[in-house]
Design brief:
The chain is α/β, with parallel strands linked by helices and about 400 residues long. About 30% of the residues lie in helices and about 25% in strands. Strand 2 and strand 3 form a beta hairpin. Helix 1 packs across helix 8, helix 4 runs parallel beside helix 5 and helix 5 runs antiparallel to helix 9. The longest helix has 20 residues. It starts with 7 loop residues before the first strand and ends in a 6-residue tail after the last strand. About 40% of the residues are buried. Bound molecules: nicotinamide-adenine-dinucleotide. Nicotinamide-adenine-dinucleotide binds next to helix 1.
Length: about 400
């Protein structure tokens, strides 16, 4: 990395950059994109660039990535990477979930600030242990909560902040698309996602997302009811070999939030898309409703809402989907992962606010665990008050 005299640099050990998220979203679209724009801007105008130190299991794969992007440092030794960033550097982890705990514990012990993909642990106990170790070490810590930084969700948040909804009654979320099994068409997701023994499962994957989205927008989760299922019992892996799908590939959940808001959330890799975006939330309030996706948001105020009358015996005259108004975005759209990276960097370098810490990550993993218990036992579970 070329430097100019006196330039501010922070070193970032990045583990998992041979993976989908680590490479595309974090290395290329966040860290390298921030550098290409001259670094992250701190209050007062100072700019800091990031010097990645790649770490992973395959020297050959890391070397290819390093060469492609002109990165000088890579290693297959976590200790070497932690030495290279020194105290005050950042350790970032986008490995498979099951590999996260050990690596992040070592980074914390070495005095690095830590930033990790979600879920922040394979279990809430693991995640809570990371959070406690990070607090005890006095380092800054964070977990990726990218959905909050999506343009559509940011617009929804600004609509909420304006008081548009009156009292929010309910939220209905639809997430999903068909993930090919792999027999005749290549699957679009890594095979470990469909094996429970490798940390897979849609509940563990998506409930942490829903937890921080709901917390960030509406309130804390007080109770969880869920049904997790494996609709597709066998799939084909990256090498074309058939394997048993042991993890849940769809989950149907109800989250009861503070303030009496009821959220119903469908998460599925076994559904075909008949909606505007791969993720959509409909929010209904006493004064108005809105539907927000990854990028867009539309709203309908009670003053202009239609007055449907149930009568299937006559043709429907209402064009319901045309009766919503687009809501203009809140600020410039940008890559959600990069926006959160910039916030985390300002937190580390200048003490800025960062609510997306490992404690928040732990709450998400706990909600996932309660979802699994609810499904297995056919019961509704309350989140213990001290854990909300
Ligand atoms: N924020 C999001 O929207 C989002 C989306 C997808 C995945 N994720 C999370 O990101 C993490 C990585 O997911 P991904 O989809 O990039 O996975 P991936 O399979 O594409 O990448 C996994 C990475 O972990 C490394 N790894 C380390 N130990 C491993 C092991 N024992 N087996 C296999 N790989 C190992 C791989 O080399 C690779 O670099 C997961 O924790 C996942 O939950 C987050």
């Amino acid at each position: 990395m070329e430097r100019t005299a006196g330039e501010d640099i922070i070193r970032v050990a990045m583990n998992g950059v041979t993976g989908r998220m680590g490479y595309n979203q974090h290395l290329v679209r966040s860290v390298l994109a921030i550098n290409a724009d001259g670094g992250v801007e701190l209050p007062g105008g100072r700019r800091v660039r990031l010097e990645p130190v790649l770490v992973g299991r395959s020297d050959a794969k890391l070397a290819v990535i390093a060469k492609r992007h002109g990165i000088e440092n890579w290693t297959t030794s976590l200790d070497e990477a932690l030495d290279a960033i020194g105290n005050g550097g950042i350790y970032f982890d986008a490995q498979v979930t099951s590999a996260r705990h050990e690596a992040v514990m070592r980074a914390t012990a070495a005095g690095a600030h830590v930033y990790v993909e979600k879920p922040s642990g394979a279990t809430s106990a693991e995640s809570a242990e990371l959070a406690a170790a990070a607090d005890a070490a006095g380092i800054k810590h964070g977990v990726v909560q990218d959905k909050l930084f999506l343009p559509g969700i940011r617009t929804l948040k600004s609509l909420l902040d304006s008081g548009f909804f009156g009292r929010v009654l309910s939220v209905r979320g639809e997430f999903g698309y068909w993930v090919f099994e792999g027999d005749w068409r290549a699957p679009q997701r890594p095979s470990w996602n469909y094996r429970a023994q490798d940390g897979g499962g849609i509940v563990l994957d998506m409930f942490p997302h829903w937890t921080y989205v709901l917390e960030g927008l509406f309130g804390t989760i007080e109770a969880v009811t869920a049904k997790a299922v494996t609709h597709i019992p066998a799939r084909w892996d990256e090498a074309g070999a058939r394997y048993d799908a042991t993890a849940d590939d769809a989950a149907y959940g109800i989250f009861e939030l503070s303030g009496g808001i009821i959220t119903q959330m469908n998460s599925s890799w076994c559904t075909r898309v008949h909606r505007g975006e791969l993720l959509e939330f409909q929010v209904d309030g006493t004064e108005g409703s809105a539907v927000a996706g990854l990028r867009d948001c539309v709203a309908q105020h009670r003053g202009v809402a239609p007055r449907p009358v149930w009568n299937p015996d006559i043709p429907n005259e209402e064009r319901f989907l045309d009766q919503w108004q687009p809501v203009s975005p809140d600020g410039e759209p940008g890559n959600a992962f990069r926006l959160q990276w910039e916030l985390f960097l300002r937190h580390v370098l200048a003490g800025g606010e960062f609510p997306h810490d490992l404690h928040s990550g732990t709450r998400g993993v706990r909600v996932a665990e309660l979802g699994y218990r609810s499904s297995a036992e056919g019961r509704r579970f309350e989140v213990p008050a001290e854990a909300r």
